[in-house]
Amino acid sequence: MGRSLFRFFAVVSLSVLLASCGEQATNEPLSHEDARELKTSFVDSNKYLLAALGNPSNLTTIGGQALPSSVAALVQASNLNPQDAQCGVNVSPTNPPDQDQDGIPAQASFTLDCQETAGSFNFRLRLQDKDDRNPKSGYVLQTDQYELTLYPGTPSEVRIKLDLDLDLTQKNPGYDIGYNFYFEVYKQGKTYSQRHNYTLSYTPDSDENPFLGGTLNYSGNLEYRIPNRYYRLTIDAANLRYAQSCRVSFVGGRVVLRDSRGNQLAIVYNSCNNITATYNGQAL
User: Fold this and answer.
1) Angle, CA 158 vertex, CA 153 and CA 163 arms, to 5°
2) Listed residue (189, 265, 252) closest to 46, CA to CA
3) Which residues form the signal peptide (predicted)?
C-alpha cells in the first residue's frame, strides 16, 4: 500500500474513532490563561514555517554534511547547537542531483540524530524540487519525524514533536504554499498542541530572489488542545512580513484568532522578535 494511501486510511480511521468517542470542540470561551498559552505556543511555532522557507540557494554544513538551507534551518530551530552536538547525518542518495543548482535536490531524504548535554534531537525529512530545470519552480518539504527533548529528567524538561509538510508552487505572480502543520509541546507535566492545514499566498519582494523576503496571507481554522479541553478557532493572517534575516518571527503583519463565542486573540508583529498580543483588547 502506498504511503499516501496509508496516511489517508490512517486519518479516516482516526476521524471515525474520535467521532465514535464523541470528541467535539468546546463551546466554552477561550479563557485568558488559555489565550496567553496559545499566544506563546503560536509565536514559538512560527520559526518552523520561517525555517522551511529558508533561502534554498544556500547550503549549511552540519555534522560534516552540506545541507540545503531549509533543512539546516529546521535543525537550528531546535535550539540545540548542531555544531556542538554529536550528530549523525545521513543523506540519501549521497549526492542527490540538482540540475538547476538552486540548492534544492531533485529528490532526497535527510536523517539527523543529535545528542548534546542539553538534550537530544531526531529528525527525518524529505525534500523534492518541483522542477529541477527551473530554480524558481518551488519545492515540497515533508517531515517524517521531528522530536526534540530538552533538559531531560529535570523539572524544566521540554519535549517537542513536529509534523510539517510544505508544498510551495510557483504562480504568476508569487507562490501558493500548501501548509500542513502539527506542533506538540510537553512542559511542566502538561501537553499542548496545535494543528492547522491551509494554503498561504506568498508574494516575494523580489522576483530574482523570491525567498529572501515577502508577504504572506491566509485564513482557515486552527485546532488547539490543552489538558482536558479542545478549542477550534478561526484564524486570519494579514500581510505577514517575512525576512530571511529574522529566523525567530515575522517582522510585520497581524494574526487574529477567534473562538466559537467571537472572543479575539490578536497577535501583532512589530519587527523581528518584537511582538504584542491582546485578548479582547487586553494586553497579554
Assistant:
1) 130
2) 252
3) 1-25
Q: How far apart are CA 246 and CA 230, in angstroms?
A: 32
- Residue 282 resides in a domain: no
4 falls within a domain: no
Q: How far is CA 84 from CA 76, 80, 114, 247, 254, in A?
A: 12, 8, 10, 20, 36
Find the domain containing 121 and state its range: 27-232
Phi and psi at residue 144, to the nearest 5°: -100, -25
Q: For 239-263, what is each residue's pLDDT tens digit? A: 999 998 898 999 999 999 999 999 9
pLDDT of residue 8: 43
Q: pTM of the prediction? A: 0.85
Residue 66 covered by a domain: yes
The low-confidence residues of the chain, meaning pLDDT below 50, are: 1, 4-20
pLDDT of residue 14: 45
Domain count, the chain: 1
227 cis-preceded (ω within 30 degrees of 0): no
Examine residue 179 and state whether it is found in any structural domain, yes or no. Answer: yes
Q: Cell for 85?
A: 552536538
| Count of beta carbons in the 10 Å neighbourhood of residue 20 | 8
